[in-house]
Amino acid sequence: MSSWQFYYPEALLPRLEKELPVKAGKTPNAKQWEMITSRENNICVCAGAGSGKTLSLIWRVIFLYVYLRVPLNEITVLSFTRKAVEDFREKLLEMLDKFGVNVDPAEIKKTVRTFHSKILEFGRQSTFAVSSNKMFEHQKAPEDIKGSSEFSILEFKTEKKSVARLCQMLSKSGFKLGVMSAPANTITWLNEILQVGDLWERMLAAGHKLGITDEIKQLAKRTDKLRGVLYEDLKYTEQAAVKMLNRLIIEALYPNETPKRIDDDDEDELIGQIFNRSNIPIE
């Protein structure tokens, strides 16, 4: 069993015990104090509705952030539903204001999340590339390419669109895709198409016409010199540009079959709809 404990100086406790009841307008009970100031790496709180679990957790965040100076990006609060998350964010901002601390709501939004939103974030961040210097090197997408270009089953479920239908449309497109390693009619197959470096030229050669947006024009120009380079040999930022261009091409060609990309600002709502968590009782 781990003997690890969260360290903080005992001298902080008298100040906390004096200030918190005054600023919060309520005095925690003995069990709440135990939870707020716990040094354990795991603590389980079991209590009925209305007993103060949410308030205790808010006070715990206040203790960590205001008194111990733990950065908000090192604190994560998770809940099941978007409604519960929004309620917690609002109450936390109100409590921080009582302590004279002004925090950007955008920071609180990143700190307090639904389980599904946080898992999606992990998935988006888990992009690794093998290099000659490091076995695994974490990579970030270019700042000017917003959101993920890869197809996700979440997108299809949200808009009730068919993966197989879009795959079939692309198979009949005349692009001459060649041999694909992924199984047909799958998300993996669609994402493999996003890696085709000269999809732009293949589309034009097949005689397809589409409304070319400024974004497509810019990405086509940006990736012009990458056409004959193997996808695996591209830098990560170049791979991201190629995939985004191809995603935009597919969206323009088959708008009725292609789902909209999930936007970071809407991910909580979309994932909540997909998993239908709105009926879970919350405090």
Overview of this protein structure:
With about 280 residues, the chain is mainly alpha-helical. It has helices at about 10-25, 30-35, 55-65, 80-100, 105-110, 115-125, 155-160, 165-170, 185-195, 200-205, 215-220, 235-255, 265-275, and strands at about 75-80, 110-115, 130, 135-140. It folds into two domains: about 10-125, Rossmann fold (3-Layer(aba) Sandwich); about 150-260, no CATH class. The protein is built from 13 helices and four strands. The strands form two sheets. Strands 1-2 form a two-stranded parallel ribbon. Strand 3 and strand 4 form a beta hairpin. The chain starts with 11 loop residues before the first helix and ends in an 8-residue tail after the last helix. Mean pLDDT is about 80; it is low at about 125-140 and about 275-283.
